[in-house]
Specification:
Largest sheet: none
Distance between the termini: 49 Å
Radius of gyration: 28 Å
Order of helices and strands: HHHHHHHHHHHHHHHHH
Number of helices: 17
Shape: elongated
């Protein structure tokens, strides 16, 4: 696909109709039909075609880049159009050119990461995510997104490489500490994980998902343990949300069981289970349908194996 298809691309834009600015849209098409217009004109026209006609969008972009060869926005959109047009090698080269020229181009870095993940190139995927994190201005949300992106795609050890920098920030929020603890626990260092979970509940006692990991990352041997005392204090707080109070009860019950106080554990578990059931209705019919569906699949597979050839 090249700019010789520009007339077809402009016809497609006319058929798409106008957007929020009818006069402006048709004036843009008119300028491009005369091979005029600035980089923004070429970008806006191509952007309308990329989702449904990436091949046609490439014709617009290649002509736009003929006039504006160093425009980062056009180069980035070309990489995405190539990706959607089923040209992964060319798309990768285009997106890498963008992040090489402008390492802080988050959209290009993320698009490249998705492209590499689609190809199963997970080491390269992680390398792109980490490089982008290192170049972007630091923020709590950015740290959390980068860590989550790596963890959700199974790159736990790569996520751990970011932890020193992430945790050095005085603004690291409680969710970041929970995720850091999860990463460290997965890597088999529960003592370091416990520190992160403890910091999470210190910063936000109402973060339900932090309490059970705090208890499960260790085996308690005394009520004098600082984390045990934190659990006991949280269990007396009426201002915590219901989900947090349930999580605290389960975590404290585990801690009581660790030190051999089974009666206290039972006293905590009975109301905690009742409260959990109150907020999580059991869908017995849905479970039965799931089991029946799985059985049918297994039976069908068995009949296929037993069938004569």
């Amino acid at each position: 696909m090249n700019s010789s298809r520009l007339p077809a691309a402009l016809d497609a834009l006319r058929r798409l109709g106008s957007g929020n600015d009818p006069a402006g849209d048709f004036a843009r098409i008119d300028r491009l039909s005369r091979d005029e217009g600035d980089a923004g004109d070429w970008f806006e026209a191509a952007a309308r075609l990329v989702p449904t006609a990436p091949g046609l969008a490439l014709g617009v972009l290649e002509r736009g880049l003929h006039h504006h060869p160093n425009d980062i926005a056009l180069l980035y959109l070309r990489g995405n159009a190539l990706r959607l047009d089923g040209q992964p090698a060319a798309a990768e080269a285009a997106l890498r050119e963008v992040v090489t020229r402008l390492p802080t181009h988050a959209e290009a870095g993320i698009s490249l990461a998705y492209l590499l993940r689609e190809q199963g190139r997970m080491a390269a995927f992680a390398e792109v995510v980490i490089r982008l994190w290192r170049h972007l201005p630091r923020s709590i949300d950015g740290d959390l997104r980068s860590l989550t992106f790596l963890v959700e795609n199974g790159r736990i050890a790569d996520a751990a490489l970011l932890l020193p920098g992430v945790l050095a920030s005085p603004n690291a929020g409680a969710p970041v500490h929970v995720l850091a603890g999860t990463i460290l626990a997965t890597l088999g260092v529960p003592d370091r994980a416990r520190v992160q979970f403890a910091e999470a509940v210190r910063k936000n006692p109402d973060l339900a998902e932090a309490w059970w990991p705090l208890a499960s990352a260790q085996r308690f041997d005394s009520r004098d343990d600082a984390d045990f005392r934190a659990l006991e204090t949280a269990a007396t707080r009426a201002d915590l949300q219901p989900a947090t109070r349930i999580a605290v009860a389960f975590a404290l019950a585990k801690a009581c069981d660790d030190i051999g106080d089974v009666e206290a554990a039972v006293r905590l578990l009975e109301p905690a289970n009742a409260n959990w059931r109150r907020h999580h209705r059991w869908d017995a019919a849905g479970w039965r349908r799931f089991v029946d569906d799985r059985l049918r699949v297994r039976l069908a597979a068995g009949r296929a194996v037993d069938a004569p050839v």
